[in-house]
Amino acid sequence: MFQFEIQATCRNTGARCGCFHTPHGPVMTPRFMPVGTLGTVKGVTTSQLAETGAQMVLSNTYHLHLQPGEEIVAEAGGLHRFMGWDGPMLTDSGGFQVFSLGDLNRIDDEGVDFRNPRNGSRILLTPERSMQIQMRLGADVAMAFDQCPPYPATENDVAEACRRTHAWLGRCADAHQRDDQALFGIVQGGCFPHLRDLSARTVADFNLPGIAIGGVSVGEPVEEMHQIVRQVTPLLPDDRPRYLMGIGTLREMAVAVANGIDMFDCVLPTRLGRHGTALVGGERWNLRNARFRHDHTPLDASCPCIACRQHTRAYLNHLIRSEELLGLTLLSIHNLTHLIRFTTAMGLAIRDGCFSEDFAPWEPSSRAHHTW
Fold this sequence. Notes:
Layout (H helix, E strand, L loop, with lengths): L2 E7 L6 E7 L2 E5 L1 E4 L11 H6 L5 E4 H6 L3 H6 L3 H5 L5 E4 L2 H6 L4 E3 L4 E4 L6 E4 L1 H11 L3 E3 L11 H21 L6 E6 L5 H12 L5 E4 L8 H11 L9 E3 L5 H9 L4 E4 L1 H7 L2 E4 L2 E4 L19 H5 L2 H9 L3 H28 L2 H4 L14
Parallel strand pairs: 4-14, 5-6, 6-10, 10-11, 11-12, 12-13, 13-14
Antiparallel strand pairs: 1-2, 2-3, 7-8, 8-9, 15-16
């Protein structure tokens, strides 16, 4: 039911393109995956989401447990039917909230005791409970419950988070019982190479359908993230999808793909869109800026999204300045399309044998330019 086939590789880098087969359809890689934390990609309908080229969409176990609750989602027939999305889905385990809600939780070997930000009640999230919730939600991929340490953290604290993550992964594997849902493990280890090595080898030994690299984009310098990817990826199985969590910038995705990463997610495109910012040619444009008031050209003439196809920079500037919700939706659609086009173009370049020429300008010695 879950199979990953590599369709082409780059002769000069570790880049590869492939297809991850799921019960709700294929995911062509490399692939950016939009984040729909509460069963919705903010401000975008599922029909609009499909038009961006999205294939796999993320939701979050912790937040859906709080509202509306996994039982209501299960009553609806699962998360796909509940939100009206027919394509593949992945649910995060709640492990990232161990990091992001650090002031609201208490961690021990049993699990994480959260204080509900809505009403102050206590919620104990254990590996077993995370699996139960994710099985009820019914996404195609469930992520193992892990402890994501902050940056910076001491070596002892990161080593403790690794030990706990590996123990929790064993408990997740024992508790997970849905054949139509793949369980992915998560590599931790912070910025300590020996801990990353240990975690990668430990997680790989579980022989799961896919593996993620977690604990990046949590405040570390970007070069540290690049080094983690370069170190960890060769330690992971070649025949499984590799997922770099929380990354959604062009340069970082291109570097990661060149080192063998297949999947990405990030809240960046819709977060920027909700603040009136558009991604154009790898740059961030504030559409509130006065320079766009009389600009009657498309936002990006090469982009097929509805914002670029039917509207102008001047109109988008008017919507943002007027605080119209339509402007935020249009920019979110555009930003999602932008990142998905980029990862799709990397896959095409790998197939055509020109990935290192078209997507390697981050190397100081390279004369390459983005041609997508």
